[in-house]
Amino acid sequence: MKYFMIEGTLTDADKINDDIMKEHMAYTQKAMDSGLILMSGLKSAMSGGLFIMKAEDINDITEYLNNEPFNKYEIQSYKVTEFDAHYFNESPKQWFSK
Is residue 30 pLDDT above 90, yes or no? Predict the structure, then answer.
């Protein structure tokens, strides 16, 4: 299995509307439910998003991003970085709690 960090950068936020946002959220949730995405969130500057994904190879990530609504509507661009995971927190849910 390979691991990827994806950084999304908003290129045209004015195109976002309720329908596109709902499509984006549903698409992301489906990927989370299937185990493709570990976590996803907004940059604190609201300039895009970050997410951690795992897949057999980069082609799975490319296919996901090609069909991602923010990409389809030319709202966000993506930078993909593959990384090797060496250390894991045994309780990530607890790590993210306050």
Answer: yes
Output DSSP code: residue 73: T
82 CA to centre of own chain: 13
How far is the C-alpha of 81 from the C-alpha of 3, rounded, in Å?
8
Q: How many Å apart are CA 48 and CA 57, to the nearest integer?
A: 24
Beta bridge partners of 29: none
Q: Read off the amino acid at residue 41.
A: G
* Order of strands across the sheet that contains 76-83: 37-42, 49-55, 2-10, 76-83
pTM: 0.88
H/E element holding 14?
none
Whether the predicted pLDDT of 91 surpasses 90: no
3-state secondary structure of 39: strand
**Whole-Å CA distances, 27 to 34, 41, 83, 95:** 11, 14, 24, 26
Which residues sit opposite 40 in a β-bridge?
51
